[in-house]
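Exercise 7b. Backbone tokens:
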């Protein structure tokens, strides 16, 4: 996916949010916005939005002196999501199709995002809507069939808090067959994206081997990933890609990827042919309408 002019106001909104999360000083907020406005023309519209976002957040950190402005929010998301863990497990265990329920919950967890939207739903309310919401794109059958032939699964994480929902899905997948699972986290803090600290806090290391992609981009930008993660990417039988940022950088890749996400902006909604807020489980062969 390339960047559209519609993305530019979103970059500025994110910059202001991060500045306010870093400091109460309005003079610094103004400096952040001025600095971001100054560097935006340097980036081509031919690259995906997360590739530009990485530079924007570096600039924000430089101006504010705060490298991880959402650290506290991430910790709170993880803590509250962990409190829901027993309930999530009970919902999955009692479902007619436990794997399907786990998939829906994992996608519902993608609502915990401070990048593509100004605010996210309270963690405690996400479950209430998850199972009732139909998929905007539903390739669950294809996904389940792919798992039956899988020995190596690569799971691309997205956000803190959401990672608890991911753990529930991985645990359910591991009940279907013996397989090797690697869970990929960001190399450095960026927005509320998942890092080693988050993975360890929620016990992801108990159900998968956690690996860092070595990048501070808010997505799995392959050209920036470590050799270890690239080897895992190219050797995986199935890849689960969580979140809109990962979709934006991987939707044209020729790999057996299944995208699990909630649609959070009009640009991506129009690309996929769905509505903002829709839950998506999309296999790589889905045809989409290009954004005009």
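Sequence design result:
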């Amino acid at each position: 996916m390339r960047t559209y002019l519609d993305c530019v106001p979103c970059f500025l909104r994110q910059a202001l949010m991060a500045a306010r999360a870093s400091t109460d000083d309005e003079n610094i907020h103004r400096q952040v916005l001025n600095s971001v406005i100054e560097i935006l023309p340097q980036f081509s519209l031919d690259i995906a939005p997360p590739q530009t976002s990485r530079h924007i957040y570096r600039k924000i950190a430089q101006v504010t002196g705060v490298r991880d402005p959402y650290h506290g929010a991430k910790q709170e998301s993880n803590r509250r999501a962990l409190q829901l863990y027993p309930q999530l497990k009970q919902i999955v265990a009692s479902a007619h199709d436990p794997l399907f329920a786990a998939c829906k919950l994992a996608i519902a967890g993608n609502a915990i995002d401070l990048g593509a939207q100004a605010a996210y739903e309270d963690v405690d309310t996400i479950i209430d809507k998850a199972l009732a919401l139909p998929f905007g794109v539903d390739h669950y059958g294809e996904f389940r069939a792919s798992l039956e032939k899988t020995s190596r699964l690569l799971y691309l994480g997205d956000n803190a808090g959401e990672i608890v929902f991911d753990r529930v899905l991985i645990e359910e997948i591991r009940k279907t067959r013996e397989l090797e699972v690697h869970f990929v986290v960001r190399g450095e803090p960026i927005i509320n994206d998942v890092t080693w600290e988050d993975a360890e806090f929620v016990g992801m290391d108990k159900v998968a081997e956690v690996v860092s992609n070595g990048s501070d981009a808010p997505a799995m930008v392959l050209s920036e990933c470590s050799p270890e993660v690239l080897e895992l990417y190219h050797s995986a039988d199935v890849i689960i890609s969580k979140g809109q940022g990962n979709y934006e950088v991987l939707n044209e890749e020729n790999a057996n990827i299944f995208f699990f996400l909630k649609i959070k902006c009009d640009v991506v909604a129009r690309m996929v042919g769905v509505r903002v807020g829709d839950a998506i489980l999309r296999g790589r062969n889905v045809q989409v309408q290009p954004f005009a």
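Instructor comment: The CA atoms of residues 31 and 63 lie 7 Å apart. The domain at 71-283 is CATH 3.40.50.10880 (Rossmann fold).
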